[in-house]
Input
Amino acid sequence: MRDLFNSIILLGAYSLIMAIEWTVLNAVDVAFTEASVGAGITTVILMAALSRVKRDEKINIHGSRFQFSRFIPLLVVFFTMILLIYGTMDMPFYGDPNAPSQTYLAPDYIERSEHETGSPNIVTAILASYRGYDTLGETTVIFTAGVCLILLLRVFKNNER
Output
């Protein structure tokens, strides 16, 4: 799309659809994060950034010669898609009771999580303790986005930019 506003709205709608999909898959914690961060704060930050830039893409009217460099991003995306598909070939089927996560990891979490973390809720134990660095990383990303938003929206005195 050439209009950045429409692109931001589509990105927010996509995040909302993904939040609904996560809810259908019974991953409510991921759905909540997707709805709040993806559809919520990201849309607000991008709208704030849009208030500082031009809304429309400038169209190049100087010839339409074939340029290989225009296709490099498409080739990168295609190559990444092939790698991701290849990487998922040996994954177990969704809901497979004999999957390694069901036979080794889940019973271990159920047995030891309350003793090791002190939390009677297994999901809280996993998110707050076992995945603590991941949560710290997510918090760092949100903090960095907030700092960038403040830098974008700050008001300068005497038109200093």
